[in-house]
Design goal:
Number of strands: 7
Order of helices and strands: EHEHHEEHEHEHEHHHH
Largest sheet: 7 strands, mixed
Strand content: 5-15%
CATH architecture: 3-Layer(aba) Sandwich
CATH topology: Rossmann fold
Low-confidence stretches: 254-280
Number of domains: 1
Structural class: alpha/beta
Helix content: 25-40%
Strand order of the largest sheet: 3-4-2-5-1-6-7
CATH class: Alpha Beta
Distance between the termini: 33 Å
Number of helices: 10
Shape: globular
Length: 280
């Protein structure tokens, strides 16, 4: 069972889009997938046809229940979900810490009933966002092909450094996925900068911007079922194929999070800003 945290500190980075549609594409390839929605907004939960969970979800993370009892089938065949709940928004710092520790324990105790567990992490620096990184061996980072989105991955790299040093020395950056890529020069430059900064870690497949990907959540269907012949479905099937290929070639999945000295610099895609690192 592979546990993969799908995360980016910046909101609007196609994180939920990647989680939902990669899960569905992997299931089409014969894998059983569990989505764990840790974003209190519950976008993945609602996209996959579920209502947001209630108090029992929080109770399970706080040790007063079993998370596996909350697992529910979704609108994507062979994809199950542990739904999110608004109660994941902690009332105070003490409760936030307790929830984060509960998430770690729950993920560690998941039975090996699935081939992949994909965790949709909240776009923040909170303890709830960090907790999956303490358990998951692998991190996938979707990055919107916009210059401002690069700041999110720069910040995440610092968080991963800290988690690796203190909690999970085996944490690895398994890949970066360029998302919402269009035909503009700006979009191409952002993808080029990603490939320069994270050579070998950026997926060959890019996820193109498409109307059908924006429409699919309204119909509570993954793109592979909403528009199975469209560009979005084609892209996520290619991402799933590439993920499996990377897994089979262990060296590509054994790249450690680079340290603070050798970490690639994420640069602004502009000739005027060439050589200027993004703020962290």
């Amino acid at each position: 069972m592979k546990i993969i945290a799908i995360t980016n500190h910046k909101g609007g980075s196609a994180k939920t889009t990647t989680t939902v549609n990669l899960a569905a594409a992997l299931a089409e390839l014969g894998r059983r997938v569990l989505v764990v929605d840790l974003d209190p907004q519950g976008s993945a939960t609602q996209w996959l046809g579920m209502a947001l969970g209630d108090r029992p979800v929080l109770d399970a993370y706080l040790g007063r229940g079993d998370v596996t009892h909350l697992v529910t089938a979704t609108t994507a065949p062979d994809v199950d979900i542990v739904p999110a709940t608004y109660y994941l928004v902690a009332a105070d710092r003490q409760q936030e810490t307790a929830i984060a520790l509960g998430v770690i324990r729950a993920l560690e105790r998941l039975p090996a009933n699935w081939d992949y567990v994909l965790i949709d992490c909240p776009p923040s620096h909170s303890s709830l966002a960090v907790a999956p990184l303490a358990v998951a061996p692998y991190v996938l980072v979707p990055v919107e092909a916009r210059v401002l989105a690069l700041a999110g991955i720069a910040s995440l790299m610092g968080t991963m450094d800290s988690v690796r040093e203190r909690l999970n020395p085996d944490l690895k950056l398994a890949g970066v996925i360029a998302s919402r890529v269009n035909r503009t020069r700006h979009s191409r430059e952002v993808v080029d900068r990603l490939r320069e900064s994270f050579a070998g870690l950026v997926f060959d497949t890019v996820v193109r911007d498409s109307i059908s990907l924006a429409e699919a959540p309204s119909f509570q269907l993954p793109i592979t079922r909403y528009a199975p012949a469209g560009a979005g479905a084609e892209d996520f099937r290619a991402v799933a194929d590439e993920l499996l290929h990377r897994e089979q070639h262990a060296a590509e999945w054994a790249v450690p999070v680079v340290d603070k000295v050798t970490r690639p610099r994420v640069l602004l895609p502009s000739t005027r800003a060439a050589g200027a690192a993004l703020p962290r």
